[in-house]
Design goal:
Number of helices of chain C: 3
Distance between the termini of chain C: 40 Å
Mean pLDDT of chain C: 85
Largest sheet of chain D: none
Largest interface: C-D, 38 and 49 residues
Structural class of chain D: mainly alpha
Radius of gyration of chain D: 20 Å
Number of helices of chain D: 5
Low-confidence stretches of chain C: none
Number of strands of chain D: 0
Number of domains of chain D: 1
Helix content of chain C: over 70%
Order of helices and strands of chain C: HHH
CATH architecture of chain D: Orthogonal Bundle
Oligomer: heteropentamer
CATH class of chain D: Mainly Alpha
Order of helices and strands of chain D: HHHHH
CATH topology of chain D: Helix Hairpins
Shape of chain C: flat
Strand content of chain D: under 5%
Number of domains of chain C: 1
Shape of chain D: elongated
Structural class of chain C: mainly alpha
Radius of gyration of chain C: 14 Å
Helix content of chain D: over 70%
Mean pLDDT of chain D: 80
Low-confidence stretches of chain D: none
C-alpha cells in the first residue's frame, strides 16, 4: 500500500498534530508557528489534489481507520464531492490564513496568536474530517471539535461582545449537537449501525417497524444542522458571532464553517436516508421553505444593519439559504448550483470580511454610514468590495451569477417557478444594500481627520487574489461545473 | 480573406474599444490631448471596422464566431447579421461624432480621465450587445453596458445626479434580473439560448408568457417604456450632453434591439400573435407615446423635455413591434436610425447652448437663436424632423409606420401617430419659435452678438442635422434600404 | 426487584433534573446536579456498562461539579 | 393504549426523552448562564442514557473479556461512543464556564437578561 | 481554605487516588476504565490538592507549563502512535494490521498499541483537568481558549 492510500486520514491528522504542536512551538520559537501552519496547509492541499488524481484514476474508495471495517471501525469515504469540499476547505483556509498572518497582529494580543494558530488548524482539520467521514458518530465528534474551535476563535479576542457572542454560539451549538446525538441514538436504536452506508441499507426495514423513531430523528437532524449552519429560524447566534469575531475568524466562519454543516446535512439526507424515505417525508420541502425564508429575511435584516460586519453576517444567512435551496429542491441541477455557491460564497464572503477587516484596521470605521469616500483612500480594497457585492447581486462576470443560474434552472426543471422568483427577488434585495455602500464609497468625499493607517501588502494581496478568483469563477466556471456535474452524476444520477 | 480572419473583424470591432480602455486611462494621466486623440482614434477605427463588414453583410452573409464555452450549452459567441450590422454601424457612427463633440465640451468638466475610458468602454459593450450570438452573451454585455453607463450618468457628481444615478442603477439591476429570469426560462424551454437557430420556444405556455413578460421588463426598462421609464427623465438630463446623446440615441435602442431579437428569435411572429402578446405591447406602446409626449409638454428644463420626448419616440418603436408586418418593421428599424440621429442632434445642440450660455431652462431661452443661429438651426431641423414634417427623415419613418398600421387594419394607431406628432409640435415649437423671434426687448444689447460654440462641437451637430435632411429627402438612402432589407430578413427568416 | 430499583432511580433522576431547573441557589443546583450524575452512574452500572459508569462518576460528576463550583465561586451564587 | 404499553415497556427511553426535554427547555429559557451550562450537561447525559439503554439486553454480560460460558455480551459500541461523548461534553462545559467567568468579569453578572439590559443602556 | 481536617484527609487520600488512577489507566485494555476515566481520576487528585491547600501548592505539584506541555504531548503521542502504524504498513491507528505485538489476552502487556494510546490519553486528560481548573480558578486567567478536546 502506498502512502497515497493514507492521504484521507493524513489530511485530518496533520492538522490535528499541528494544532497540538502549536502551543509548544509558540513557546519555543514563536516565529516558526506561521510557516509551520502554512506548510501544513500546503501539504494538505497537495494531498487533496493527489486524492483527486487518484479518484480520476480509480473512482471512489474507502479508508478504514485502524483497519477496522465499518460495523466497528470508523470509515472515511473519498468521493468527488467530498474531495471538492476538502479542496475548498484547505485551499480557502490557506488563503484566509495568509490574510490572518498580518491581520492578527492588529486584532489580537501577541501572546495568544499561538493559540489562534492552533485553533485555526483544529478548525480546518475538523472540518476536513466532517467532509470525509462516513460515520455518524465520528461526524458528531468532529462537529463538537469544530464547534468548540469556532467558538474559541471568536472569543479569543476577549472583548465583551466576542465573549457574549461566543457563549451564545456555544449554547446553541451545544443544543445542535445534543439534538444530533439524540438523532444518532434514535437511528442506532432501530438500525444498530453508525456507518452511513450500513444505515442506508438497514433503514427501509427499520422504517417499516419504527416509522416514528425515524421521523423524530429526521426532525432532530434538521434542527441540529440548521442551528449549526444558520438555517433561517435558527440563525440567531450568527450575526453577533460573525460580526464581533476578528476578521479572519469571520471570514473562515462565514466562508467555510457554515458551509460544511450544510454539506453534512446534504450527506446525511442523500446518503443515509434512502430516496424512498425522502419522498415519503417532506424533508426537502421543509429545508426548501426554511431556506427561502432565510434568503428573504436575511437580506431584509441586512438592510437595516448599521455595522458593516453585521450586515455581512446577515447577508451570510441569506446566502447559506441558496445552498440549502439547492439541497431542498432535490434536483441535480439545483444541487449543482448549491455546490457551486458553496465555493462562490466562501470566496466572496471571505473576501468581503477581509475587506471589512482592512477598513477597520486602516480607518477604525465599521459603521456603514461612515464608509463615505473610503474608495478614495483604499481604492483597491473597495474595488474588491465592489466585485464581491456584484457577485452577491449576481452581475454577469462574477461567480454569483453562475450559481444563481443553476439554482434557477434547477428550480425550473423541478417545476418550481416560485423559487426562481425568490432568487431574482433576493438578488434585488442584495443590490439594495450593497450598492449604496459602493456608491458612497467612491462618489462621496472622504471626511476624516485621522490619517489612514497603512495596510500590509500581504492583506491587500490576499484580497486581490480573492477578487481575481471571484471573477475567474464567474468568467470561466466551466471546469468546476463540469467537475461538479460529473460528481453529482456519480452520486445521485443526473 | 479566409474564414478565421473574416470572423475576426466583428470581434475586433467590439474588443478593440474595450482593450483600449486601460490604454486611454493611463494616457489620461500623462496628457489630456493624447487621451482625447486616442479616444477619437479608437472610435474611428471601430467605426471603420464595422463599416468594412458592409459588403459581406449586404451580400447576405451571417458572420458567426464562438469564443469559448462558459458553461455547458452556454457560450460566449458572436453573430453579425443585418440587424446587428445596422445598429452597430449606427452606434459606431454616432459615437465618433459624440467623441469629437466631447473634446471641447468635456474640457470644462472635471474627471476627464474617467469620462473617456468609460465612454470608449461603453462603445465596446454596446457593440458587444449588438453582435452577441446568444442571449447569454447579450445579457453579459447588456449588464456591462448598463453598469458602466452609470458612471456616465453620475459624471457631474451633483446630488441630483447621484440620486438619479441610484435610481438608474436599481432599475438597471431590476431589469437585469428580469432578463436573467427570462433567459433562464428560455434556456429551460429551448435547451439553448443561441440566436442562430430557429425560434427557441415553439408553443405558448405560462412559462413562455412569463419569459416574454420578463424580457419585456428587462429590455423595456432600458428602452424606457411605460411604466418602467421612471429612471429615464432623471438620468438622461443629468449626464454630460454628449453622454445624454448616447444614452438617448443609442443605449435606449439596445432595449429595442433586444425586444426585436426576442420576438424573432426566442418566439416567432406567429407565436407572439397567437398569444395575444402583441396587444399587450400595443397598449403599452400607445400609453408610452402619449405619456411621453404629454409630460414633455410640462417640462421646462430643455434636457428633461428631450428625455421625455425620447420616451414617446421609443413608444413608436414598440408600436411597430406590436403590429409586426413588413412596413411597420421597416418603419421600426428606420425609426431607430431616425431617432438616434435626431435625438443626438437635439441633445448635442442643447448641450452646446448650455455649454455656451449656461441656460438650461426653456423659459430663459427666448432670443437665443439669434446668438447661436447655427446651433439653433440644426436644433430646429431636428425638431421639425421629430414632429414629422416632410421631407425630413422623421416623416419617412412615421409614414412607413402609419402605412403598416393601415395595412394591418389598425387605423387607431395612425390616429395615435397623428396625435403624438401634434404633441411633438406643441412642445418643440415653443422652443424654436421664441428662440428666433422672442426676447427682442430683454436681450436687445446681445441681439446680434453671435456666440457660437467651437467648431469641434458644431461639426458633429451639423453632420447629424444634415443626415436628418438627406435621409428624409432621398427615399432610397442607405439607412432606408438597410431597414427594408433587415425587415424582410427578419420576417422571412433569411436574407431577401 | 432490580426493576423496581431502576424505576425508582429513574424517577429520582427526573426529580433531580427538575429541581436543578427550578432551584435558585446555584450551589444547591450544582450539588443536585452532582447527585444526578451519580444516580446516572448507578443506572449505567445497572445497565451493564461499567466503564461508562466509571467515567461518568469520575468526569461527569467529579470534574464537572468541581468546575461548576469553581465557576460559581468566581461569580454569583444566587440566580 | 398500545402506545402507552410501549412506553411503559421502554421506560428508559421515555425517561431519556423526558430528561432531554427538561434539559433543552432549561437551557433555552433560563437566563442564568451557569444554569444553561448545567442544563446542557443534563441534556447530553440524557442522550447517553438513551444510548446505554439501547445497548442493554436483559441478562447480558458487561463487555469485559473473561470466560462467560453460555452467556452473551451486550453491545460494547454504545459504551465506547458515550465515553467519547462524555469527554467532549466536559470539554464544552469547561470552555463554557471559562467564558462565563470572563463575561462576569466584564459585566458583573451572569444573567443573560441583565447583560442585554446593560448593553442596551450603554448604547 | 485553611481547614486542618480537609488538609489531613486530602494528604492521606491523594496518593491512593493517584495510584488508583494510574491503575485504571494501565488496565484500560483489560478492565473497565481506561485513559479517560483514569486520567480524570488522576487529574482530580491534583485538583483536590490545589483545593485543599491553595493554588500555589497545586502549582508546585504540576505547573502551568508542564501541564500544557503534557497536554500537547499526550495528544501528540496519540497521533504519532497512529502514524507509526502507518509506517508499519497498516492504516492510520491500525493495531494488529500494523503488527504491533499483541501479547496474550488478559495480561498487562498485551493489546499492542492500545495500552500506549491509553497512557497518552490518560496523560492528556489528567493535564487537561488541571489546566482547566487553573484557568477557571486563577484571578487573571490565561487568555485564550483553555480547552481543546482530545483526539
Amino acid at each position: 500500500m502506498t502512502l497515497q492510500h493514507h492521504f484521507p486520514a493524513l489530511i485530518i491528522v496533520i492538522f490535528l498534530i499541528c494544532a497540538f504542536i502549536m502551543p509548544l512551538l509558540f513557546r519555543w520559537r514563536s516565529t516558526l508557528c506561521a510557516p509551520a501552519l502554512l506548510l501544513v496547509h500546503l501539504l494538505a492541499l497537495a494531498m487533496a489534489v493527489a486524492l483527486l488524481v487518484r479518484l480520476y484514476a480509480g473512482g471512489p474508495f474507502y479508508y478504514h481507520l485502524g483497519n477496522w471495517a465499518p460495523p466497528w471501525g470508523i470509515e472515511l469515504k473519498i468521493d468527488f464531492l467530498r474531495v471538492y469540499m476538502v479542496l475548498i476547505l484547505v485551499g480557502l483556509g490557506l488563503w484566509i490564513f495568509v490574510y490572518a498572518l498580518k491581520d492578527l497582529a492588529h486584532e489580537l494580543k501577541r501572546e495568544v496568536t499561538g493559540w489562534y494558530y492552533a485553533l485555526y488548524a483544529l478548525l480546518i482539520g475538523s472540518m476536513s474530517g466532517m467532509a470525509l467521514t462516513n460515520d455518524m458518530f465520528n461526524l458528531f465528534v468532529f462537529m463538537e471539535i469544530c464547534g468548540i474551535a469556532s467558538c474559541a476563535i471568536i472569543s479569543i479576542k476577549e472583548s465583551r461582545e466576542c465573549l457574549e457572542a461566543s457563549f451564545k454560539y456555544l449554547i446553541l451549538s451545544a443544543m445542535g449537537t445534543g439534538c444530533y446525538l439524540m438523532a444518532i441514538a434514535m437511528i442506532y436504536m432501530v438500525t444498530g449501525q453508525l456507518n452511513f452506508q450500513l444505515i442506508r441499507e438497514a433503514l427501509p426495514a427499520a422504517a417499516g417497524l419504527y416509522p416514528n423513531n425515524l421521523l423524530v430523528a429526521t426532525a432532530l437532524i434538521i434542527v441540529a444542522f440548521g442551528t449549526k449552519a444558520a438555517l433561517f429560524p435558527l440563525h440567531v447566534w450568527l450575526p453577533d458571532a460573525h460580526a464581533s469575531a476578528p476578521s479572519p475568524s469571520s471570514a473562515v466562519l462565514s466562508g467555510l464553517v457554515i458551509k460544511i454543516y450544510a454539506f453534512s446535512l446534504f450527506n446525511i439526507l442523500f446518503f443515509v436516508f434512502p430516496a424512498s424515505f425522502r419522498q415519503a417525508v417532506p424533508i426537502n420541502e421543509i429545508v426548501l421553505w426554511l431556506a427561502t425564508l432565510g434568503i428573504l429575511f436575511g437580506s431584509i435584516f441586512a438592510m437595516v444593519q448599521e455595522d458593516l460586519k453585521k450586515m455581512l453576517a446577515y447577508s451570510s444567512i441569506a446566502q447559506i439559504g441558496y445552498v440549502f435551496m439547492g439541497i431542498g429542491l432535490n434536483q441535480p441541477t439545483a444541487l449543482l448550483g448549491g455546490f457551486y455557491h458553496i465555493l462562490n460564497h466562501a470566496l466572496m464572503k471571505g473576501m468581503l470580511f477581509m475587506v471589512a477587516g482592512v477598513i477597520i484596521q486602516a480607518t477604525g470605521r465599521r459603521r456603514v454610514k461612515d464608509l463615505n469616500g473610503i474608495g478614495h483612500v483604499l481604492p483597491l480594497v473597495m474595488i474588491a468590495f465592489t466585485v464581491g457585492g456584484f457577485s452577491m447581486i449576481g452581475i454577469p462576470g462574477t461567480g454569483g451569477l453562475i450559481s444563481k443560474w443553476y439554482l434557477a434552472e434547477g428550480a425550473l426543471l423541478a417545476n418550481r417557478l416560485f423559487f426562481v422568483i425568490v432568487i431574482v427577488l433576493s438578488s434585488l434585495l442584495n443590490a439594495v444594500y450593497y450598492l449604496p455602500i459602493i456608491i458612497n464609497a467612491f462618489l462621496n468625499p472622504y471626511e476624516g481627520r485621522e490619517p489612514v493607517k497603512p495596510v500590509s501588502r500581504l492583506m491587500v494581496g490576499a484580497i486581490t487574489a480573492g477578487m481575481i478568483a471571484v471573477i475567474f469563477f464567474g468568467v470561466y466556471p466551466k471546469p468546476v461545473i463540469v467537475f461538479l456535474k460529473a460528481a453529482l452524476a456519480a452520486v445521485i444520477g443526473m | 480573406m479566409n474564414e478565421a480572419a473574416a470572423s475576426a473583424v466583428p470581434v475586433f470591432a467590439f474588443l478593440f474599444p474595450i482593450l483600449m480602455t486601460p490604454v486611454i486611462m493611463f494616457a489620461g494621466r500623462r496628457s489630456g490631448r493624447l487621451r482625447n486623440a486616442l479616444a477619437l482614434a479608437t472610435t474611428v477605427v471601430t467605426f471603420l471596422a464595422v463599416i468594412s463588414l458592409y459588403p459581406r453583410i449586404i451580400g447576405g452573409e451571417v458572420i458567426q464566431f464562438t469564443f469559448f464555452e462558459i458553461l455547458p450549452e452556454l457560450h460566449i459567441s458572436f453573430r453579425v447579421d443585418l440587424l446587428s450590422f445596422c445598429l452597430a454601424a449606427l452606434s459606431a457612427f454616432i459615437w465618433v461624432l459624440c467623441t469629437i463633440y466631447s473634446i471641447d465640451y468635456m474640457a470644462r468638466e472635471h474627471a476627464g480621465s474617467r469620462y473617456y475610458p468609460v465612454l470608449i468602454f461603453t462603445l465596446g459593450a454596446c457593440l458587444g450587445i449588438f453582435m452577441a450570438g446568444d442571449f447569454f452573451t447579450l445579457f453579459i454585455f447588456f449588464e456591462l453596458m448598463s453598469l458602466i453607463a452609470y458612471i456616465l450618468v453620475i459624471h457631474e457628481e451633483t446630488p441630483a445626479a447621484l440620486k438619479a444615478g441610484y435610481k438608474y442603477l436599481i432599475m438597471t439591476i431590476i431589469g437585469g434580473l428580469a432578463l436573467f429570469f427570462g433567459i433562464i426560462i428560455t434556456f429551460e424551454l429551448g435547451g439553448t439560448v443561441s440566436l442562430s437557430g430557429g425560434p427557441l420556444v415553439q408553443e405558448t405556455s405560462l412559462l413562455a408568457f412569463l419569459a416574454f413578460i420578463s424580457f419585456l421588463i428587462g429590455f423595456g426598462m432600458k428602452a424606457g417604456i411605460f411604466p418602467l421609464h421612471v429612471w429615464l427623465p432623471d438620468a438622461h438630463p443629468v449626464a454630460p450632453s454628449p453622454a445624454s446623446a448616447l444614452l438617448s440615441g443609442i443605449m435606449l435602442k439596445t432595449g429595442a434591439y433586444g425586444l426585436l431579437r426576442v420576438i424573432f428569435h426566442v418566439f416567432s411572429v406567429e407565436l407572439v400573435k397567437s398569444g395575444g402578446w402583441d396587444k399587450i405591447m400595443g397598449v403599452i406602446a400607445v400609453i408610452t407615446i402619449l405619456l411621453g409626449s404629454a409630460v414633455a409638454l410640462t417640462q421646462d428644463d430643455i434636457k428633461r423635455r428631450l428625455a421625455y420626448s425620447s420616451i414617446g419616440q421609443m413608444g413608436y418603436i414598440l408600436l411597430g413591434m406590436s403590429i409586426l408586418n413588413e412596413n411597420t418593421l421597416i418603419g421600426d428599424i428606420f425609426h431607430i436610425f431616425t431617432h438616434a440621429m435626431i435625438k443626438s442632434t437635439l441633445f448635442l445642440a442643447a448641450g452646446a447652448i448650455i455649454w455656451k450660455t449656461g441656460k438650461r431652462l426653456i423659459s430663459e431661452m427666448p432670443g437665443i437663436g439669434r446668438q447661436m443661429p447655427f446651433t439653433l438651426g440644426c436644433f430646429s431641423l431636428a425638431a421639425l424632423a421629430m414632429i414629422g414634417i416632410p421631407p425630413l427623415n422623421g416623416f419617412l419613418s412615421k409614414w412607413t409606420l402609419g402605412l403598416g398600421a393601415l395595412e394591418a387594419g389598425m387605423p387607431f394607431y395612425v390616429l395615435i401617430l397623428l396625435v403624438s406628432s401634434l404633441l411633438n409640435a406643441l412642445y418643440y415649437l415653443p422652443i424654436i419659435v421664441p428662440a428666433f423671434f422672442g426676447g427682442l426687448e430683454s436681450d436687445h444689447e446681445h441681439g446680434f452678438d453671435i456666440k457660437e460654440a467651437t467648431p469641434r462641437m458644431l461639426v458633429p451637430v451639423a453632420i447629424l442635422a444634415l443626415g436628418t435632411l438627406i435621409f428624409g429627402l432621398l427615399p432610397s438612402n442607405i439607412p432606408f434600404d438597410l431597414s427594408r432589407l433587415t425587415a424582410s430578413y427578419l420576417l422571412r427568416g433569411g436574407p431577401f | 426487584m432490580t426493576e423496581a430499583l431502576n424505576v425508582m432511580l429513574l424517577l429520582f433522576l427526573i426529580v433531580c433534573a427538575v429541581c436543578v431547573a427550578r432551584i435558585r441557589d446555584m450551589l444547591s443546583a450544582v450539588i443536585l446536579f452532582a447527585s444526578f450524575g451519580l444516580i446516572m452512574a448507578i443506572i449505567w452500572q445497572q445497565l451493564s456498562a461499567p466503564d461508562v459508569a466509571m467515567v461518568e462518576a469520575a468526569i461527569g460528576t467529579g470534574v464537572t461539579t468541581l468546575l461548576l463550583v469553581a465557576a460559581i465561586s468566581k461569580t454569583r451564587r444566587t440566580e | 393504549m398500545e402506545t402507552l404499553k410501549n412506553l411503559a415497556h421502554n421506560y428508559y427511553y421515555l425517561v431519556a426523552v423526558v430528561l432531554f426535554v427538561i434539559g433543552m427547555h432549561t437551557m433555552l429559557t433560563h437566563s442564568n448562564l451557569i444554569k444553561k451550562v448545567i442544563a446542557m450537561n443534563i441534556m447530553d447525559t440524557s442522550v447517553f442514557l438513551l444510548f446505554v439503554a439501547i445497548g442493554y439486553i436483559r441478562g447480558g454480560q458487561a463487555p469485559i473479556m473473561r470466560d462467560i460460558g453460555d452467556g452473551f455480551y451486550i453491545n460494547p459500541l454504545p459504551g465506547a461512543l458515550i465515553l467519547t461523548g462524555i469527554v467532549v461534553g466536559v470539554s464544552v462545559t469547561a470552555y463554557a464556564l471559562s467564558l462565563v467567568v470572563k463575561i462576569y468579569r466584564y459585566y458583573g453578572t451572569v444573567d443573560a437578561d441583565e447583560i442585554v439590559e446593560i448593553r442596551s443602556r450603554e448604547q | 481554605m485553611e481547614d486542618q481536617i480537609t488538609r489531613l484527609t486530602s494528604r492521606l487520600v491523594v496518593p491512593f487516588i493517584q495510584v488508583y488512577g494510574i491503575y485504571i489507566i494501565l488496565h484500560g485494555h483489560l478492565s473497565p476504565g481506561g485513559g479517560f476515566s483514569g486520567g480524570a481520576i488522576f487529574g482530580a487528585s491534583l485538583v483536590l490538592m490545589a483545593l485543599a491547600f491553595n493554588l500555589s501548592a497545586g502549582v508546585k505539584q504540576i505547573s502551568h507549563q508542564s501541564a500544557s506541555l503534557m497536554e500537547s504531548g499526550g495528544a501528540l503521542g496519540y497521533a504519532l502512535v497512529g502514524l507509526i502504524a502507518l509506517l508499519w504498513g497498516g492504516n492510520y491507528l491500525a493495531n494488529r494490521a500494523a503488527s504491533f505485538p499483541l501479547g496474550r489476552a488478559g495480561e498487562l502487556f498485551s493489546g499492542g498499541a492500545i495500552p500506549v494510546i491509553t497512557v497518552f490519553v490518560g496523560m492528556k486528560v489528567a493535564s487537561t483537568m488541571v489546566t482547566l481548573f487553573y484557568n477557571l480558578i486563577e484571578g487573571e486567567a490565561k487568555v485564550g481558549d483553555p480547552e481543546k478536546p482530545g483526539a
